[in-house]
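Workshop exercise sheet. Pairs work together: one partner reads the sequence aloud, the other fills in the structure field after running the prediction. Swap roles for the next sheet.
Pair: D.N. / O.F.
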Amino acid sequence: MSDVPTYVLERVFDAPRDLVWRTWTEPDLLTRWYGPNVETVIHRLDVAPGGLWLVEMKWGDTSKYERVEYTEVDPPERLEWLQSGADSDFNPASNPMMPDWPRVLHTVVTFEEVGDKTKLRLVWTPFEATDAELACFAGALANLDKGWGAGMAILEQLLAELQT
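Structure field:
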């Protein structure tokens, strides 16, 4: 596979850019929308180049861990990071339920002012992936809107609540 499969999510929020930025960079706001239908526990959030975001998503007695390393932070316009599944000590690890899921995903989120609204654009691509990982991600593209879409719906509600 020569083309890297790419997931792109775009949403326009009826909120100022600084507020939308805060929902992606402040732990008390981030836990309210990230990981819909699970308990989101942020173990560390250092939003700076080289900083880590260590997150645990819990449902019942089950936990899923993610490790994010920020590569670029340009407030309030751009966040860029490398994201991987992790073990309970936050060491990068393969997804046990999907062994061919990319070990690392490259994520770029931009926040653009559009009048008094904010256009958010998220681009998600496998990073240094094997052919099997690229194929797995490509096969999942059609379903990625379910999780991200649910999170964006919660984020939209949160932004409305924060402005009342």
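Discussion prompt: The chain has a mean pLDDT of 95. What would you look at next?
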